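Annex B. Sample input.
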Amino acid sequence: MPLAVNHGGNLRRQFLHKQLSTTSIGGACDLTTEQKERAKKWITRYRRNWDLFATEVLQIKLYPLQLFSLHMMGVSQEYNEIATRGAAKSWRCALAAIVVFCLYPYSEIVITSSTIPQASKLVEKKIRDEIIKKLSNYLLYMYEHEYIVITKSNTSDGGAYTIENKLNGSTISVLPCLESARGQRSTFNIYEESRLLKASIVSSVFEPMGHARQAKYLLNPKYNVARWQEKARSFYISSARYSYEWFAKKFRDTVTNYYTSKYEKYTPFAQDIFTAIEDGSRTWADYRKNKRSMSELDERKSTYTVMYIYNALNCWNTLRALQTTTHG
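Annex B, continued. Sample output.
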């Protein structure tokens, strides 16, 4: 007996095609001059303020420090953060990727993780189950109607995840830090838990991936000037360890470039457990519980007591400078 034909997939594709027809270039011709100018202003507002896009459009509630870090990511060519455990570093990596994914058509975002299971967890737990399904009705609608499509390749290395935005052509690829990633291209590189990554792979495989986003408006001679050319971006986020490790040197370079770079925007940022407690994302009970379970050596190495590395990296001065710049 033949199996019943499943028409569900075909119906979804027809619905998607119908919806996508409204996003064609020709559709913009139906807009008035006033509507086009209003659209430009809203796009500019959100591209300059990722934190506002996350709260106003995605409807995701953020703690003050999360708002601050997301905003600084959005205005930086290179963002480098050292943070305590429990500061939601992986989650903020995922959220930043989703913001870029929505705001910048034809973006190629690559999130780099230390292992394949860690990369898979980032997509399955952080992006799909938490950000899309639980926290944002906007993203859930897109996911249910197949505007956001998550796929996993069937390869011998365990498979790599790809997330596609069918409305604007953007993609997110989550890849382990291995030689096998060579050949990919990206407009945004996000290095999740960068201290666990191999510096040689980062410099030889992932950084060369970067290229400027190929936005269609750049085909217009009016915008084909240096001012509007976009640059590839890199975000490094890590917990703290010793100052002789490669990620610490990279952080020091970011601090130096924050003060000296004339053309690119570099942003260093740091927070410890006490900052997270003040912010409200962690509690004193969390601190006491973990402190009791640690040996003296573990406590020295732990990101719950990372004042020593902050002093070595001079990043408290940097943090004060950033606060003055933002709120002053």
